[in-house]
Amino acid sequence: MKAFGHDKSEAVxxxxxxxMTSKKNGTLYVGLTNNLIRRAYERKNDLIEGFTKKYGVHxxxxxxxxxxxxxxxxxxxxxxxxxxxxxINLIEKFNPNWNDIYDVLTK
Length: 107
Known about the structure:
Structural class: alpha+beta
Number of helices: 5
Oligomer: single chain
Mean pLDDT: 91
CATH class: Alpha Beta
Radius of gyration: 16 Å
CATH topology: GIY-YIG endonuclease
Helix content: 25-40%
């Protein structure tokens, strides 16, 4: 992109679709963010009012990343329509022990 006579490359953004849970096979939450570590921290520490705080959804167990916001939004809508077992199967394929992957991402 050209701005003020200088060549500027467009910033590449990364978007994360994620699933958090209260415990293995517990309450599930599907969300979308552009900063996975920050958002997981906020949800783990009840800094955001709403569903995750109300139901104690603090474990990050699954995520996908993309640079296309339109694909990210579409995928979030898709997963939110999935039945519970499909989401569980997705988590278990990616993270069979339902480990909190926030800890891995922040090391």
